[in-house]
Structure formats: C-alpha cells, structure tokens
Amino acid sequence: MEDTIIPMLLKASGGVGLLLLGIIVMTDGLHMLVGDTLKSVLMRFTKSPLTGALTGTIITAILQSSTVTTVTAVGFVGAGLMTFPEALGIIFGANIGTTVTGWMVALLGFKFHISTFAFPLVLIGSTLKLVFKGKVGAFGYAIGGFGLIFVGLTLLQEGMSGFGGIITPDSFPPDTWMGRIELMVLGILATLITHSSSAGVATVLAMLFSEAINFEQAAALVIGMDMGTTVTALMVSIGGSVNVRRTGFSHVFYNLLAGIMALFLITPFIYIWERLAPGSLLPNAEIALVAFHTFFNLLSVLIILPFTYQFARLIEKIIPSKEPQFTEKLDKKLLDDPSIALEVARISAQNEAVALFGHINFLLSDPKYGQKADLVLLQSSLD
Question: Tens digit of pLDDT for each residue in 317-336?
C-alpha cells in the first residue's frame, strides 16, 4: 500500500506545484502583454465605486491576479489619481474577477479535458518566449503558463485518483457548523502557504472530482481560501503609508464579513440548486462549486456597494492619518511602479510648494493668496 501511496502523493504535490507555477507564469505574461494598457483603462473608467467594481472585475479576470489589481488601485490612491471609495470599488470587483480561474479549470479541465493540448501549448509558448521579444514573447509566456496549469491539473487528478477509498469525506471535519469553521480555517492556512487562492480552488476542485470531499466541505474550504488572500494583503501593508494600511485592512474586513455570510449561504444554495435542477448537484459538483464561489462574491459586492462611502469613512476613522500632511502619500512600496511613484512625488512636492508660498504670502499680509501653513509639518516632511 505504501509503495502506491508515496508515488501518488508525489505526483499530486507536483501537480499543485505546476499549477502554482503555471498561474505565476501566465499572470506575468498577461501583465507584460496588457498590464500598462489596463492600468490606463482602470484609471480612466473608474469614476465611482460602481465603475471601480466593474473595471476591477474585468481587469482581474484578464490578468488573473487580484494582487496586481489591488496594488495598482493603492498606487492610484496614493498618487491622488483616485479616491479611497473608488479604490474600494476596485477591490470589491477584484474578488469577483478571481473566480474566473475556477470557471476556467472546472470547464476546460474537467468538462472538456484540455489537458490533451496542454503539452503542445507549453512547447509553443516557450518557443515564442525564447525566439521573440516584446508583445509576442509576452504572449508566448502567457500561453506557456496556461498550458502548465492544465499539465499540473492533470498530474493532480492522477495523483488524487490513487487515494480513492483512502481519503474520503470522512477524513475531514463533518458537515456541521464547527466542521465548516474548521475547514474554513484550513482553507485560510492553505492560502497562506501557497499565496494563491486560485491554486487552492483548483486543488479543491480536483479533490471534489475524485470524491475525496463532498460539496459542503469543498465550499467551506473555498470560503477560507478567499479569506486567506486578505491575510497576505494585510501583511504586505504593515509599515506602509496610511492609504496602504487602510486598503489592506479594508480588504480583510470586507472579506471577513463576506466569508461569514457565505458560510450561512451553503445550505440555501444547495437547496435552491436542487429545487431548480433535482439530482444534478453531484454530477456537476465542480460547476456548482465555482458557481457558489462566484455567487457569494457577487452578492457581497452588491450588498456593500451602496454603502461604500460609509464603509470608507469607517475605515478612515479606524486608521486615522498620523503622518505629515505633505508626505502621507509617499510609500516605498510604490517604487515597484516607477511611473506612479514619480507622480506621487510630483504631487507631494507641488502641494508642499503651494503651502510654503501661501505661508510666505501670509507673512507678507496678502489677504488674497496668503494662508498660514503648519511649519512643523513642513519641516518634518522636508527632513
């Protein structure tokens, strides 16, 4: 028995590794291909929390990375190019956009079995990347990553098939409230280890396909994985500017509320599905799971969007700005995007110069243009 289990375990773990690698490679390729253009689109079409949610959803679905979308939104807020409520809309939408990966895996990996074409895609993609530069090379990188995802998924499925009868739903916490909470925590821990909820969701789909877990257990795991992504964002925001900290905390707070709501939605979702299509849940468990993932994220956004400005004011009260007025937008993390970092520095210097000249006019008794400035804040920012 051990001679069989160990090779299957190695194959399954290798499949998870290839899944992670494929997601990373595909995301990087897509970012190189259309990243700058999508940033411009993000800034141009985000005029309110609603439009921010729509653009955040679309861009995250294209880039396959909520992290890229969120970091870009933080940069725009820091540069004064976008308000905090607008950025919140983008973050809300990014949660919906991440569910596209699950649909891609469930439809192409389990229903259409695209794994037959995965190896040629890896060859074509790597060849394009090696031979060409620029957009063509980036396209090849994305195609290669796409193929790797399904190579990894195939290995993961083959590895999981070897555990038939060994790993069953009874191996996991039962479908009780406490069991769902335990599975949710397990999902959070899994995301903290892999730093990718998309890879986690794909793994859960493979476990569900091999009947290692049931639908209720899979749903609780996916909820935890959604919440786990915010812990990473919170850790990244530690030591950042006030806008970065507010964004990280709001991401955690929002996903925590959405996750709690989702736990209560598992049973009603199953009931409604069975009422609309009796007996179809088990044969289509993978589709039902990604549908549930999209459903609770979409519902959460629809509930929070009308209260975005109130939510933003709450976060601003919880995390007030204690930084110098003219340098509060400066953050070393923005150096990852030189164009945004330069714009932040320009705006900060411009505001400081305006305040300084206004103070000079105040000292010259100019009632029209003179305005007293806090020289202590100015001095601390200059230091």
Answer: 888 866 555 555 566 656 66
What are 221-249's pLDDT values in tens digits? 999 988 887 776 677 666 666 777 787 78
Q: What is the 3-state secondary structure (H, E, C) of the chain?
A: CHHHHHHHHHHHHHHHHHHHHHHHHHHHHHHHHHHHHHHHHHHHHCCCHHHHHHHHHHHHHHHCCHHHHHHHHHHHHHCCCCCHHHHHHHHHHHHHHCHHHHHHHHHHHHHCCCHHHHHHHHHHHHHHHHHCCHHHHHHHHHHHHHHHHHHHHHHHHHHHHCCCCCCCHHHCCCCCHHHHHHHHHHHHHHHHHHCCHHHHHHHHHHHHHCCCCCHHHHHHHHHHHHHHHHHHHHHHHCCCCHHHHHHHHHHHHHHHHHHHHHHHHHHHHHHHHHHHCCCCCCCCHHHHHHHHHHHHHHHHHHHHHHHHHHHHHHHHHHCCCCCCCCCCCCCHHHHHCHHHHHHHHHHHHHHHHHHHHHHHHHHCCCCCCCCCCCHHHHHHHHC
Which amino acid is it at 357? Answer: F
Look at phi and psi of residue 365 and say left if phi exceeds 0, alpha if psi is from -120 to 50, else beta: left
